[in-house]
Design a protein that fits this description.
Length: 738
């Protein structure tokens, strides 16, 4: 079957090729990857459909097809492995015309029609005679229902082809890493109703993908299935396809699977703190953000954690999981407990230079793919993060503050003590600061949250030399030591000198990082030389550190100058710095979680007008993205040049700490925080510019629940306590609780 050519007259053009002219060509990513960072994918996934649920993720073309030859990122993934690299729908080899496609969480639907087509016998299927509807859901694998309907007055014969393949590429190969080991072959076996792909990896693990068709196809082979249909007028045929990735797949009909997934999503929302305001797009955006975080839930050894983001970071990252959990502590605190428990399980117990591990260190990244398991990439169990360990301590106290779950802290106490001892050892090793220099030659060059190789630089563009002591890491460590002291007192345990170390670190931050113009420098090069580069990092010091008021004010003022503030948010690096690039991963882009942290710092230190401006800009940016899905980052283009933020081409979505940023921003603006045992403080509440009132339902603190209403008035934002369930005191405060 072939599409009939377009016969209308149109413009004709000619492209001339002069002698000696050459054609530009893309260079494979593996050919120029810098040493010291994870492979950065090329191309763009901005227009891709991305679904995630139950540990399985899908990246597809806009119409729902998977074709890794056409778009390398597309595929069905599980545990860092691409289990489906091709899944194409054609009508006798002709692509149908996509009319519309939409998604809601883990559910995708699309509708197509046919172009005018000629059958092999010469008979023509008229254009738009057929309507094809695709309904897809991720449950325990992928489940899809295709309906093919004939709306022509005459019977129509059509061949529906479903091309499938599984290459079992490791996610690092998809991202551009060129594997060194030989690739084992993929075995494909076709039966009467399905195809089974089997891959025995170099790591000794057998991975399988099973594709089942119902009803059985007219013919089937290793490359796919063919249905020869003859449809009477107004007749509809339903074809079901089920894909499982090594585990038992779905057995229920597609509508029942969709209903179950929707029910599970609604249960999650009902159990979380409920947000409602008078601006409906913001209500939808909060719900989307919470469901995006839910979609990233992943189980390991019976404990649940939040994966960092799809498709590149669909695994456990220490820093990301802790920040995400802290952001969502007012909304769904059990997510933070899961992160703490999983990271405690994988906490390092000995020194291992190959993985940048040291006793007490919390993992940076865990991977389960083939290349990680055979050691071709170092990230199978990798500890090259300078900030995950202090954040582990901060997050434990944050969980305690919101839940009052002292038993969890006591269970984690050996891990908390080991983390504190790592912090103390690092301070001693680097002359009073916490600094990093990778030990693994294959590890990350930069080990803060800005971990691309070119992220930490001088104003003239030179890269800073290790050991590097980042300003925000000193703030994290200061907060971690103080949190450890308080938790030790609660548990009746010694604090191992943490209180005195915290006092010394607080003084050293002001002495060595303070800067009159910037507030604080970006870092210390080689652990001693200040690098006065204007960047977003000091905002984290305002969030968790203890800056002097004058220096906090200096940074707050600097952050909103035009070279740092794009209008959509504060850039990672000022545009006045050599090496700035609005499309740079950490060298000029805007990260939602970074701005959420800065907003929290501004609120904590009383810069409420700036916080309100930043919060409003943040929300306006979030609402500008399709379906209100907040991506990992976006470009740093000035707002005056764009009606919407410029997408970053390979930004993950859903992405955990970006999705969690919106609920965190709202809780921060409303000023709700624990202020002691069974006490909730509401501090200087404010509303975004587009909102007149907000209601929070079932906000939980230490086992109690409270309903609150916030309304804009002539004298500011008024608060009403509409209901309290349990033992909880509500106080209004002018000072941000510690």
């Amino acid at each position: 079957m072939r599409a009939l050519p377009f016969t209308g007259r149109g413009l004709r053009g000619r492209i001339s090729r002069e002698a000696g002219m050459s054609k530009a060509r893309p260079i494979p990513a593996a050919g120029w990857l810098p040493v010291g960072e994870e492979p950065q994918p090329t191309g763009s996934i901005t227009d891709c459909v991305i679904l995630r649920n139950d540990g399985v993720s899908l990246v597809a073309l806009p119409g729902g097809d998977i074709d890794a030859e056409e778009h390398e990122a597309t595929g069905l993934y599980r545990c860092d492995t691409r289990h489906l690299s091709r899944f194409r729908l054609t009508l006798g080899g002709v692509a149908p015309i996509l009319l519309d496609a939409s998604q809601s969480g883990a559910i995708f639907s699309a509708v197509y029609t046919n172009p005018a087509m000629a059958e092999p016998g010469g008979r023509v299927v008229p254009a738009r005679a057929l309507v094809i509807r695709r309904r897809r859901v991720l449950g325990r694998g992928l489940v899809e229902s295709l309906t093919v309907s004939n709306y022509h007055p005459d019977p129509q014969a059509v061949e529906v082809r479903l091309e499938v393949d599984a290459d079992f590429h490791d996610i690092f190969e998809v991202r551009g890493f060129e594997r060194r080991s030989p690739r084992p072959p993929v075995d494909a076996q076709a039966g009467r109703t399905g195809i089974r792909f089997r891959y025995a990896g170099a790591d000794g693990t057998v991975r399988t993908t099973s594709v089942r068709f119902d009803p059985p196809p007219s013919s089937i082979g290793a490359g796919g299935a063919l249905y020869r249909l003859v449809l009477e007028p107004r007749e509809t045929v339903v074809l079901d396809i089920r894909v499982s990735t090594g585990e038992p797949g779905e057995r229920q009909p597609v509508p029942q699977v969709i209903a179950r997934v929707q029910r599970e999503e609604r249960t999650f929302l009902d159990e979380a703190t409920r947000f409602q305001c008078d601006y409906e797009p913001l209500n939808d955006a909060v719900e989307r953000a919470l469901l995006d975080v839910r979609a990233l839930r992943t189980g390991v050894d019976g404990t649940e954690f939040i994966a960092a983001g799809v498709p590149w970071f669909d695994t456990l990252f220490g820093r990301d999981s802790l920040v995400t959990g802290m952001f969502l502590a007012p909304w769904a605190p059990r997510l933070l407990r899961g992160a703490l428990e999983v990271l405690a399980r994988y906490q390092a117990e000995e020194h291992d230079p190959a993985s940048d591990a040291a006793p007490g260190k919390v993992p940076h990244e865990l991977r389960w793919g083939e290349l990680a398991r055979i050691g071709e990439v170092p990230f199978g169990r990798y500890y090259g993060s300078i900030d995950a360990t202090p954040l582990f301590l901060v997050a434990a106290e944050e969980y305690l503050a919101w839940t009052g779950d002292r038993a969890a802290i006591e269970r984690l106490w050996p891990n908390l003590r080991a983390a504190a001892r790592w912090c103390l050892a690092e301070l001693e090793r680097h002359g009073g600061v916490v600094a990093y220099a990778r030990e693994s030659p294959a590890g990350l060059e930069n080990q803060g949250w800005k971990d691309s190789h070119d992220a930490i630089r001088w104003p003239d563009g030179r890269l800073a030399e290790p050991p590097i002591a980042l300003v925000e890491v000193q703030g994290y460590t200061l907060a971690a030591l103080r949190a450890f002291v308080r938790m030790a007192a609660l548990c009746g345990e010694p604090a191992d000198g943490a209180e005195a170390a915290a006092g010394r670190l607080a003084a050293l931050i002001e002495e060595r990082f303070g800067d009159d113009a910037l507030g604080y420098v970006l870092c210390l090069e080689r652990g001693r030389t200040p690098v006065p580069t204007p960047a977003s990092n000091p905002g984290h010091l305002l969030w968790l550190g203890d800056p002097l008021p004058a220096r906090a004010a200096a940074f707050a003022d600097r952050a909103f100058q035009s070279d740092l503030f794009s209008g959509w948010g504060v850039r990672t690096l000022a545009s006045s710095v050599a090496g700035y690039n609005p499309l740079g991963y950490h060298t000029g882009s805007v990260w939602p979680h970074d701005n959420a942290i800065l907003l929290a710092g501004l609120r904590r230190h009383g810069f409420d007008d700036l916080a309100r401006a930043l919060g409003t800009a943040f929300i306006e940016a979030a609402l500008a993205f399709p379906a209100y899905r907040i991506p990992e980052l976006y470009c740093g283009d000035p707002r005056e040049l764009r009606l919407v933020p410029t997408p970053y081409p390979v930004a993950s979505r859903p992405q955990a700490w970006s999705a969690a940023s919106l609920p965190f921003v709202l809780a921060t603006m409303l000023g709700v925080r624990p202020a002691g045992p069974r006490t909730l403080a509401i501090t200087r509440p404010q509303l975004p510019g587009m909102v007149e009132w907000v209601r929070l339902r079932n906000l939980r603190v230490a086992g109690a629940g409270v309903d609150l209403a916030f309304r804009r008035g002539a004298a500011g934002v008024a608060v009403e306590v509409e209901g309290v369930r349990g033992d909880l005191a509500i106080v209004l405060s002018d000072r941000w609780p510690r």
